[in-house]
Amino acid sequence: MPATVVVGTQWGDEGKGKFTDLLAKDMSMVVRYQGGHNAGHTLVVDGEKFALQLIPSGVLYPYIVPVIGNGVVVDPFVLLAEMKMLQRRGVDTSNLKVSGNAHLIMPYHQQLDALHERHLGKAKLGTTKRGIGPAYSDKSMRLGIRVQDMLDEDIFAEKLHTVLSHTNKVLTKVFNRLPVDPDKLAEKVLSECLDGIKPLITDTVNLIHDSLEAGQHVLFEGAQATFLDLDHGTYPFVTSSNPTAGGACPGAGIGPRHIDRILGISKAYVTRVGAGPFPTELFDLDGDRMVDIGAEYGTNTGRRRRPGWVDAVMLRHAVRINSLSEMAITKLDVLDTFETVKICVAYEIDGQRVEKLPYHQSDLHRATPIYEELPGWQQDLTAATQASDLPPNAVTYLRILEEQIGIPITLVSTGPGRQQFLNWN
Questions:
Q1: Most buried residue, 11, 27, 271, 349, by CB count within 10 Å?
Q2: Is 41 a catalytic residue?
Q3: pTM score, whole prediction
Q4: Which of 21, 37, 41, 75 is catalytic?
Q5: 11: closest CA among 306, 387, 299, 291?
């Protein structure tokens, strides 16, 4: 029962969408297992750019069944808008399936998200204000509304009344905002969304297992990345779910024995959006060049990403957390013009060399990177399609990074296009 998980190994924006799209061509099904529309996947096909938020990358292949799993939180308005965008551009979305157990993001979740972030002031987390956290919070409090609830208007309205009896007190008494009318909201959601979403709703657990048991290949993709994981990331500057590989199990309804390949995705450097510790962060011209050349601005938000040199300490930890079998490196071409490139191989904390990620947040904030500095290749890699096309300095960079993380690098991206990659090992 061949299942593959694709997971980000940094703070997101590693280019997971490109390699998910690459692997998807050999799959029967691509399953998104957590997160919401706060994570964008950008794909470039024949020079045309597709920015996806909720729909799995496999939607671009007409023979693939894209599945939004139970672990995802779904804004129905965003989902329908994304479907319409794809349809306008000639992409068939008729195969799309949505778990009836996935939870819905409602407008009041987005309102609460923005209010909480503003209330935190200087301590704000840097959320996308898309309502992800409040939706997962309602899910944990057993106040959430699921996709399947839309199929019964009475249940949908009843659940809205229940959750808003609590949420309206927060809106009015804490934030001095107007209450939300549950009946009006129910009418709006059902009248504008039900017809479009109803044909997509299904029992995705059995759908996935039927595919696996038939010997078909299934790809599971997470949003965000390892160090934004609610349990294993740089808390509290994290997302509200588990994007690590293990999250595919509860997020899609499979057991770990089904998974036989786990591919980690890392940039040749690293970026981060929002607040939180970042040992290799750059505040100099090198960082500005990474941002400019790599177009490091959020797919959904447009926010400038914080840049830094690749951090092998983080990647070694990501290998352990996710049980990675291999690594793919993206955006190697962004470093083409650099005279020197650096790999963080350890930290210095209070005068001590540390080669494992410190568990205590205060230590991570004090960590100073220890770099291995290498000569750059200063050669355009965008036309490279096989390992022999790479200049010696680029090969050295990849080999040292591979040695540092302890697993093979198997794929290398040399540009944004679908065909701009090479097999490494």
A1: 11
A2: yes
A3: 0.92
A4: 41
A5: 306
